[in-house]
C-alpha cells in the first residue's frame, strides 16, 4: 500500500504541528486519509468545502453521512454516531474502529457550508464562530483522553482540508494563528504568519481575496471583542 499522501504538517501559534493541511479525499485515497487520521491520533477534522460546488466535484464523501451508518476505508471502520446541524456548519460525531488492532476511538468532523471555492465567506462572524466551535471540541476531546495524552497540552494535530488543501485551508489556519496571537499578546502579523505557513505548505492562501479576508476578519473580531472602536 502507498505511504504517500498529499498532506503537510503546519505549525500553529506556539504549537508545532498544530494542523495537518491536506487535499480533500477522493475515492482512491479514502483509505490513506483514514490511516493518516489514525496514525496521527487525530481528534478533529475540519472540512471547509462541500463535496460538490456548482457542477464540480470538490471532495469525495469520505465519511458515512447518515446517523447510524458505517463505512470501511482500508482497515478503519467509521461509524456515524450523531450529526448536529447548525446554520453554517454540520458537526458529526464519528466512532473509529481499527480492524487490525481492534482498537476504538472517537473523532469529530466539522463541515463549514458557507465558503465558495476561490472566494471568501460572506461573513467573518460565522467563520470565527465555527473556528471557536472547532477549538472547544478539540479541548473537550483532549481533556477526555486524560493521561492517555501526554504530548502537547493542546492535543494532536487538527486535520484541515478543502479541495486542494491550500486556499480555504490556509485561510482557516492563518486566522486561527492570528486570533490566538491577538488573544495572547495583543498584536499579530498576518504577512509573517502566511509567509511561515507557505514554507510548510506551498501556496497556502490562494487568492488576494482570501488574504484580504484575513485582515477583515481580524478587524471584525477585534471590534466584536471591544478591542477596537466599531467605527475604525
Automatic annotation (TrEMBL):
Stretches assigned to the Tyrosine-protein phosphatase domain: 1-221
Keyword Hydrolase (UniProt): yes
UniProt domain Tyrosine specific protein phosphatases: residue ranges: 128-212
GO molecular function, one term: protein tyrosine phosphatase activity
PROSITE patterns: TYR_PHOSPHATASE_1 (PS00383), TYR_PHOSPHATASE_2 (PS50056), TYR_PHOSPHATASE_PTP (PS50055)
Domain of life: Eukaryota
EC number(s) given by UniProt: 3.1.3.48
Swiss-Prot/TrEMBL keywords: Hydrolase, Protein phosphatase, Receptor
Coiled-coil boundaries: none
InterPro entries referenced in this protein's UniProt entry, alphabetically: Prot-tyrosine_phosphatase-like, Protein-Tyr_Phosphatase, PTP_cat, Tyr_Pase_AS, Tyr_Pase_cat, Tyr_Pase_dom
SUPFAM superfamilies (UniProt xref): (Phosphotyrosine protein) phosphatases II
Record PANTHER family: RECEPTOR-TYPE TYROSINE-PROTEIN PHOSPHATASE (PTHR19134), TYROSINE-PROTEIN PHOSPHATASE NON-RECEPTOR TYPE 9 (PTHR19134:SF285)
Protein's name in the database: protein-tyrosine-phosphatase
Organism: Nothobranchius korthausae
Amino acid at each position: 500500500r502507498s505511504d504517500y499522501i498529499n498532506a503537510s504538517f503546519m505549525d500553529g501559534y506556539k504549537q508545532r504541528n498544530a494542523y495537518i493541511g491536506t487535499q480533500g479525499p477522493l475515492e482512491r485515497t479514502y483509505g490513506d486519509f483514514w490511516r493518516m487520521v489514525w496514525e496521527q491520533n487525530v481528534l478533529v477534522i475540519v472540512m471547509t468545502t462541500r463535496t460538490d460546488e456548482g457542477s464540480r466535484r470538490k471532495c469525495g464523501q469520505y465519511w458515512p453521512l447518515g446517523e447510524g451508518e458505517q463505512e470501511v476505508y482500508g482497515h478503519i471502520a467509521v461509524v456515524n454516531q450523531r450529526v448536529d446541524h447548525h446554520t453554517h456548519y454540520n458537526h458529526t460525531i464519528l466512532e473509529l474502529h481499527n480492524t487490525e488492532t481492534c482498537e476504538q476511538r472517537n473523532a469529530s468532523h466539522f463541515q463549514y457550508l458557507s465558503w465558495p471555492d476561490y472566494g471568501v465567506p460572506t461573513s467573518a462572524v460565522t467563520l470565527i464562530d465555527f473556528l471557536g466551535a472547532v477549538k472547544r471540541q478539540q479541548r473537550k476531546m483532549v481533556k477526555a483522553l486524560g493521561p492517555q495524552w501526554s504530548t502537547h497540552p493542546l492535543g494532536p494535530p487538527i486535520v484541515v482540508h478543502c479541495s486542494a488543501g491550500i486556499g480555504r485551508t490556509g485561510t482557516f489556519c492563518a486566522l486561527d494563528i492570528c486570533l490566538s496571537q491577538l488573544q495572547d499578546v495583543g498584536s499579530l502579523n498576518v504577512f509573517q504568519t502566511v509567509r511561515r505557513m507557505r514554507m510548510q505548505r506551498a501556496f497556502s492562501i490562494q487568492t488576494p481575496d482570501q488574504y484580504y479576508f484575513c485582515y477583515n476578519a481580524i478587524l471584525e473580531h477585534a471590534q466584536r471583542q471591544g478591542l477596537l472602536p466599531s467605527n475604525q
